[in-house]
Amino acid sequence: MYLLENKGVTAPKGFYASGIHCGLKKNNSKLDLALIYSEVAGNAAGVYTKNKVKGAPIYITKEHLINKKAQAIIVNSGNANTCTGDDGLLKAKEMAEFQAKALNIKTDDVLVASTGVIGVPLNIDKIKNAIPLLSKKLSTEGSEEAAYAIMTTDKIKKQLAIEFTIGDKTVTIGAIAKGSGMIEPNMGTMLSFLTTDLNISSELLEEALRESTKISYNRVSVDGDTSTNDMVLIIANGLANNEKIVSKNNDYYNFLNALNKINVSLAKMIARDGEGATKLIECIVYNAPNKEDAEVLSKSVINSPLVKTAIFGNDANWGRILCALGYSGININPNTIDLYFKSELAEIKVCENGKAIFFDELTAKKILSKEEVKILIDMKSGTEAAVAWGCDLSYDYVKINGEYRS
Amino acid sequence: MYLLENKGVTAPKGFYASGIHCGLKKNNSKLDLALIYSEVAGNAAGVYTKNKVKGAPIYITKEHLINKKAQAIIVNSGNANTCTGDDGLLKAKEMAEFQAKALNIKTDDVLVASTGVIGVPLNIDKIKNAIPLLSKKLSTEGSEEAAYAIMTTDKIKKQLAIEFTIGDKTVTIGAIAKGSGMIEPNMGTMLSFLTTDLNISSELLEEALRESTKISYNRVSVDGDTSTNDMVLIIANGLANNEKIVSKNNDYYNFLNALNKINVSLAKMIARDGEGATKLIECIVYNAPNKEDAEVLSKSVINSPLVKTAIFGNDANWGRILCALGYSGININPNTIDLYFKSELAEIKVCENGKAIFFDELTAKKILSKEEVKILIDMKSGTEAAVAWGCDLSYDYVKINGEYRS
């Protein structure tokens, strides 16, 4: 099993992609419409935002996935098509219809996603006008363009592929993703589109995606507070020709492993590229009484604005971490907790049994000044663990969100 | 009933206060030790942080309030005396003992509070050395000094008094308070100390304080996520000589009204002086199915970093408000929600039935550029309402929390 860092959704057999500037973003040089296409319809699954306010594309994509089949995904950035009423639903449907016609496939085999500003009517004509060229541009080299076209405030394009074997067959999973507003991903839409040539039943594909999402994207900053438009979609076209996976056998877990690997890698890329972020923060809570507690605790820390600003300032202000554990809602015993900061440079213990211990502040500062910082939390009250990823809170976060509008 | 804006804890009969620089704050010109004293012991009550990690003073103050009596409150800033283990508890106890001796009163009639950095041993000698002068300085003019001495990153001192009548007696409530880290008050300790010359049973005093805290301090940004050291204390010394309140009669509700008025005013002062804040945001959710839902919804909005940054940028990005309502955990119907922005300038409707409507962006910008901005949310699904207060999220919040350490 190995990661292919320069490949994306077109790495698996039979997948094509493209990206184009259709005019939803004002800047002419920025791509804003992406297409992913499989030469045969595949089994497909989706995981969606739990927000009560949902973007129009969420409704259309869910509807089109009732039969658990899909062949294409069309995605625009620059407008979320959310809080746009019936008009928004009609336009999301129209996007799928137009794209289906251009590719000569069934409308309900086209999935739709949008990301960008909320509450502004979608200019569907710009999309319609661009669909012919977008479709024509489809190629096995198109993943990078598609990755650029789904970006909003992201600074770095996110694509990745992973190869593994099932029996004598090589199977590939490819992906493009976007994140953004990272201080609580409450609005910065998180999108991830996965392709694979694996041959698997739609039920198991869906279950694997759901499981994998839980320990990857849902561990980026807080979850539950998901955006109106978040979604993770996967299409499996079966062209790897492996023996079809229809039960939870070794092959299934092989696949789940690879899926987890690519999703966790993308989740970390999303966290690291959080709005205004200068650092990736990984928070590991271990020796907790159970997994659920560990998860809530790790997210409470990763999501604390005061922890985030302290890390931004290279300040080993561990009291803020203890405080975030204390208000998490979990019934903790502060008097058993040890805290460590760690980076490529070194590891340093800063708190023992919930109390201050002597540590070298300068060393701590150096550790925290690295681009990847780990917060290790030993609960000493069990055997379970969880990890969450986030980023620091910088001036640029305020700048981006005080000024950015589309 | 009227507010006395230049008075504080020494406004009620028989109360004295003082403030001094004892050396816990490095800057010599900054006061860091405060004392409030009543010439007779009074009934007293406290409301404390729900954080599982609690500062040492919380334990000692709770212990000293078992008999529901108190005569003095000593408060230091510059060190929270939290995560300091048994040593911290001993020192909090010692603070009370020393102060009691100096005033020649009982140790358990002295309440203790601390605010500042976590996990650093408290230099108790500096406090002990300062207590004689601090006690000597007590005066009816000392409220302002005490208000300064409890500040950390607060920019504005917070004191207030309110006068009302019960029968033919004038009753006064006085207060000093501090806030600070306002983006979720998860660490910025919120302290409020109230004095009154009211004659009331300790049970009803406690109940009134608890009720009043719920609709005032607990509505500032999010609650539940309270700091390790938050507390609200009140001493009622009875010197107003009103007929003692021992049941929930009109007099009780008169008092509760005045208490609510002073606490809500202080809560708004705390929100407005949030770290880095340039504006006070008031979020009113109305026509909700019930009070609890309205409260959760209003806090979800007031606490969203993306709403806060939008208001900082004078950006009428109402989609972020709808999103915060959507992820609040409350089962809302987005299709009945109307949104308005309001300030002294004007009111503007920006969303109807969960959908975009036309509004003049320039007018909206002007409305949002005022120092006090209201977000009005008409749920059109019931008759209940709640209000929450918060502040915008600015560059200075990041600066203060990325750099501030004591």
TrEMBL record, chains A, B:
It catalyses: N(2)-acetyl-L-ornithine + L-glutamate = N-acetyl-L-glutamate + L-ornithine; L-glutamate + acetyl-CoA = N-acetyl-L-glutamate + CoA + H(+). Gene3D superfamilies: ArgJ beta chain, C-terminal domain, L-amino peptidase D-ALA esterase/amidase. The keyword Cytoplasm applies. Substrate binds at T152, K178, T189, E275, N401, S406. The record marks G188, T189 as: Cleavage. GO terms for biological process: L-arginine biosynthetic process; ornithine biosynthetic process. It is found in: Cytoplasm. Its EC number is 2.3.1.35, 2.3.1.1. Catalyzes two activities which are involved in the cyclic version of arginine biosynthesis: the synthesis of N-acetylglutamate from glutamate and acetyl-CoA as the acetyl donor, and of ornithine by transacetylation between N(2)-acetylornithine and glutamate. Belongs to the ArgJ family. NCBIfam families: ArgJ, PRK05388.1. This is Arginine biosynthesis bifunctional protein ArgJ.
